[in-house]
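Protocol step 4 of 6.
Sequence for Methylthioribose-1-phosphate isomerase (Roseibium suaedae) entered exactly as in the expression construct, tag removed. Do not edit the line below.
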Amino acid sequence: MKVNGTHYRSLWWDEDKAALQIIDQRWLPHDFRIQQVDTLQDYADAIVEMRVRGAPLIGATAAYGMALAASIDPSNAHLDKAWEFLDKTRPTAINLRWALNRCRAHLVTLPEDQRAAAALALAHEIADEDVEINRNIGLNGLEIIRKIATGKKDGEPVRILTHCNAGWLATVDWGTATSPIYHAHDAGIPIHVWVDETRPRNQGALTAWELGSHGVPHTYITDNAGGHLMQHGLVDMVIVGTDRTTRRGDVCNKIGTYLKALAAQANKVPFYVALPSPTIDWTVSDGVKEIPIEERSQREVTHVQGLTEAGEISQVQVSPHGTPGGNPAFDVTPNHLVTGLITERGVCAATPEGLEGLFPDLSRIAKSA
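Step 5 output, structure tokens:
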């Protein structure tokens, strides 16, 4: 995607500096800052503090973290230590462990003197794979949007509701939920996006910033406006991302997703989830019972960050002094509320049969593990 006319990925390897560069997302949409990640502690801090965020991007970042670890000390003991250190950063998004497992499993089969170069090559591969996965999610989701558009009056837009930021900032490029939107816009299909603010971190503002940079018509709305818009026939479809999807199709995503799914079902609005295959957790069936939900800092709830009239980025407290804040970061939407899963291989039902039908190879590997 482009920022002020220049193409960026959300992370990239600087060959001259031999170091990873990331967009520090804590300052967006008001300031565009790039940070170099030099140490394993820097990698952990970037993930924990949400300098990088979104399941696919966390996974790619972790892969580069393992590459750094291999360059420092390629021994099995050190790789195991790095795996454990990075695995503790965030518990919900499965891409983190997926990437860590993939890197460690590959490296331990190699002689130690080959591991550093192989680890970096694998990190590049994981990043490039993510871009292609998300591009194909966009092409498959485009067909859904195109079909809805055929039933609209000339010039009337397809109205799409999003929640959280599942855009290119949450991936290496394209995004998951936004990829079909970008493809539809680029194909000349009139669309309008309702962008939920997504408290407490207001990640919808990142989506709005992205869409604005790409020229996609959109409106930034409060989290609780979605149901009202659906009641009045102003939403044609919902597309959200996912941080972990179970083998039966339960979807764990940013807190508030479940309520959007309930409102969509009540108002007969199709509810789609953009799902890259590395986000499928084949070891889990019942998402409500089995997926750990990250509890983040109460300060994210009691304070908000924004731009002052003086042009400074600042935080202010919005809650009464002394009132504690509860901050579960994710919720689980049961599969029966999901119209379909948009993957890089096609669209399927949110059922075990649907997922196994598109990914028989991955299902077999999981069953044999």
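Step 6, annotate. Residues 282 and 367 are 8 Å apart (CA to CA).
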